[in-house]
C-alpha cells in the first residue's frame, strides 16, 4: 500500500471502486444471511455503495453530494443487522477484494477500515 495515496487511489480510483462493488454484490446476493436484506434489483444499491465507498475511501464526495450526510447507522436501522451478518458482509468484501489482485496490504487495510462501520451497524441480537 502506498502511504502517500488515499485508499481510494490505492484501490484504483473510480474504476477500482466500481470493480469492487461489482465483485461484491454477487457474493452478497448468494449469501443466505445477507441476500434477504437486499432488493431483487440490486442496481440502485450498487450505485449508492459505489458513491459511498468512493467518499469513504478518500475520493470525491459523491454520496454526500447526491444524498446529503451519509448517516449510515440510521440508514441501516430498518434492517436486522446481527454480528453474524456484519461478519458475512466483511467476508464477502474480503473475497471481492481478493479477486481484484490487489496487494495484500491494501486488502488488509480496506477490511480494517470497513470493520468499524460494519460492527457499528449491528442493531439486532444474534
Question: Can you characterise this structure?
Answer:
With 126 residues, the chain is mainly α. The protein is built from seven helices and no strands. Helix 2 (13-30) crosses helix 3 and helix 6 runs antiparallel to helix 7 (104-120).
List the SSEs and their pairings:
Elements: H1 7-10, H2 13-30, H3 43-56, H4 62-67, H5 72-76, H6 83-99, H7 104-120
Helix pairs in contact: 2-3, 2-6, 6-7
Characterize this entry briefly.
With 126 residues, the chain is mostly helical. It is built from seven helices and no strands.
Radius of gyration: 14 Å
**Overall 3D geometry?**
globular
| Secondary-structure class | mainly alpha
Binned, the helix content reads 55-70%
**What separation lies between the terminal Cα atoms?**
35 Å
Which sequence of SSEs, written as H and E, runs from N to C? HHHHHHH
User: Number of helical runs?
Assistant: 7
Strand content: under 5%
Mean pLDDT: 91
- Sequence stretches where pLDDT stays below 50 over 5 or more residues: none
**What's the total number of strands?**
0
- How would you characterize the largest beta sheet? none
List keywords for this structure.
7 helices; 126 residues; mainly alpha
